[in-house]
Structure formats: structure tokens, C-alpha cells
Design a protein that fits this description.
Layout (H helix, E strand, L loop, with lengths): L8 H13 L2 H8 L3 H15 L4 E4 L2 E4 L1 H27 L4 E7 L1 H8 L3 H7 L3 E6 L14 E6 L6 E16 H7 L1 H4 L8 H10 L2 E4 L5 H8 L16 E2 L2 H9 L4 E4 L1 H9 L3 E3 L5 E12 L6 H12 L7
Parallel strand pairs: 3-4, 3-5, 7-8, 7-9
Antiparallel strand pairs: 1-2, 5-11, 6-9, 6-10, 6-11
Length: 316
């Protein structure tokens, strides 16, 4: 296709909005255009390509196979164009901008308290943070990279290890005091295997849906395999987020396996008690990930070197 027949960015934005919303009317509202203008741009695009992109039906739209394929490619181009434009306009061509997605618990309890050091060292870099639950879809998002609890490198994704997830059992000071006042008086109680087994059996064990094997794996690592009745694992609640499990322990709802990065403050103030120094390392970990099909910008390399270097200083 000659360069003179490339579609306009307006037409491509109309395609992107219409494909996401499956409605010319809603796309027009988002783009501040009239419905007829959006419909006209789509029609011109279909004539240019020689294939229909949508199936028009009463009450909405459906993408054709060609439309779905073309939109997937165009969406990535538009996201890349938006990021490049934002970066230049925000920094005046100096430094750069990085749009990063991070799990909310990791962002609030681990990354944000350390971020001042990065900003001080790299004042020309603007770091925009967003949070989400679950893996990111880079084909439809504006993020350049994400820090995710994941297996690491996967087809189409580059990855660098940020931090392993090491879990230890925690209980609230209030719950421990109700169970054994003498134990609660100790700053860091040294518990026998029999005492641990009794504690775990007497309290609900809070689990996380993303690491369902954690309790059985930790008990095996601590030499306590079989010490807790198997049906007891199913009596405790399961939470989707680390922050939920943490707040559940704070609220004396049970005992949970948590990483030190989220518990250190509550342990220091006496709200939480770590029941064992034995840690179990999850098979997945926190990775910085970005699409393989994108050129890695200098701003991402700079942040990647900094954030992966924090692992040496992190008490996991």
C-alpha cells in the first residue's frame, strides 16, 4: 500500500473506539464526534482496505475476523503513539515517561516507600503508576511494563526478577493472647512444633487464591507435614488479594502466610507476631515484564536496573 493511501489517525481512533465499545454511538461520544462522522470514517477505512470490519446489526456491532485482526494490530500502534506523545510532551524531550502497572499491595507496601530514591536519582523521568488485579494485556493497555506475581518470561514477554515471594505465618497479638497469654508476652516467641500445630489447629488458616498450595507447602518446609488435619485447610477463608489476608490477620480472623514487606510495620508496633522464621518460597515471584515485540526504551532500562537492584536490600 503506497504511503499516500495510509488511513488517518482519526479513522484508526474511530476503529479502536468502535471495536472496544461495539457501538458507533458510544465511540462518537468518547471521541467527541458525531455518530455519522464515526460511521463515515469506518466506511472509508473499509473501502480503503477492501474488506468489511464490522457486521452492523440492530442495537450494536460485531467485529468481522478481518476487523478483529486489524484492530489488534492497530490498537498496539495507537497505544505506542500515545505513549511516545505523552513522554515528549511531559518531559520536553528530556528524560522520559514510564507507564507502569503494579499490584496494589506491592505498590503501597514495598515500591512507594522506596520510590523517592529513584525520583531523586532520575528527576527527568516521570513514572506513572496504575494498579490492576491479574495479568495485564499489553495489546489494549497504555502501560509500558508491569510488576506482576507471575512465572516470569513467557512467549511474547520479557521479564526480570524483582523479588521472590517468601511466606511466613503471622497471627495478631490479640489472637495469640487469647490462645496463650504467656506466649503473647514474649516479643518473639520460640514455639515448638507441638505448639505451632496446636495454634494452627485452633485458628482458621487464611489462604490466598493465587497461592492455594502455600499452607501445605509451608508446613512441609517447617517439618509439620500431617500435623494439621487435612480438612482444617478448607475451614479458613480464601482471599484474592495479599492486602485482604493481611487485614484479616490484623482483625484476628485467623493466621495467614505473609511476606515481611507487608508485615514489618505491624510487627514493629506489636500488632502482629511472626510464629516462625521458616520461610517458604513460592514457585512464582514478582517480575518486571514488558512485551517482546516493543523496543525497550532507555527509561525502562533505567527503571529495570534500579528496581531489580532493590532485591539485595529487601527483607523478603
Amino acid at each position: 500500500m503506497p504511503m499516500t493511501t495510509l488511513p488517518s489517525t482519526t479513522a484508526l481512533r474511530c476503529l479502536d473506539a468502535s471495536a472496544r465499545l461495539l457501538s458507533f454511538t458510544r465511540a462518537a461520544r468518547e471521541l467527541h464526534l458525531t455518530q455519522s462522522a464515526v460511521s463515515h470514517h469506518i466506511l472509508q477505512l473499509e473501502q480503503l482496505l477492501g474488506v468489511p470490519l464490522f457486521v452492523r446489526r440492530h442495537g450494536g456491532l460485531d467485529l468481522t475476523a478481518a476487523g478483529q485482526s486489524y484492530w489488534k494490530d492497530i490498537a498496539q500502534v495507537l497505544r505506542h503513539l500515545e505513549r511516545a506523545t505523552e513522554s515528549i510532551s511531559a518531559t520536553g524531550g528530556r528524560g522520559g515517561m514510564l507507564n507502569l502497572s503494579v499490584s496494589s499491595t506491592l505498590a503501597n507496601h514495598w515500591l512507594m516507600p522506596r520510590l523517592h530514591a529513584f525520583v531523586t536519582a532520575h528527576p527527568d523521568i516521570t513514572l506513572n503508576l496504575s494498579t490492576r488485579v491479574g495479568p495485564i494485556d499489553f495489546t489494549t493497555s497504555n502501560e509500558d511494563a508491569s510488576i506482576e506475581f507471575s512465572p516470569g518470561p513467557q512467549p511474547g514477554l520479557e521479564a526480570r526478577l524483582v523479588m521472590p515471594l517468601v511466606l511466613r505465618p503471622y497471627i495478631s497479638q490479640h489472637a495469640l493472647r487469647d490462645f496463650d497469654p504467656a506466649l503473647a508476652k514474649r516479643r518473639k516467641p520460640a514455639l515448638s512444633k507441638a505448639q505451632l500445630a496446636a495454634l494452627f489447629t485452633a485458628h482458621r488458616l487464611i489462604s490466598r487464591t493465587t497461592v492455594p498450595e502455600a499452607w501445605e507447602s509451608w508446613l512441609a518446609a517447617a517439618g509439620l507435614a500431617g500435623a494439621v488435619p487435612e480438612d482444617h485447610f478448607h475451614k479458613g477463608p480464601r482471599y484474592a488479594l495479599m492486602s485482604m489476608a493481611y487485614n484479616g490477620v490484623i482483625g484476628s480472623l485467623g493466621i495467614a502466610l505473609l511476606p515481611r514487606y507487608i508485615t514489618h510495620g505491624a510487627v514493629a508496633t506489636g500488632q502482629l507476631v511472626c510464629l516462625s522464621d521458616t520461610g517458604w518460597t513460592a514457585p512464582r515471584a514478582y517480575y518486571l515484564r514488558w512485551p517482546s515485540n516493543r523496543a525497550e526504551p532507555q527509561v525502562l532500562r533505567t527503571f529495570s536496573d534500579w528496581v531489580t537492584g532493590l532485591r539485595q536490600d529487601s527483607d523478603t
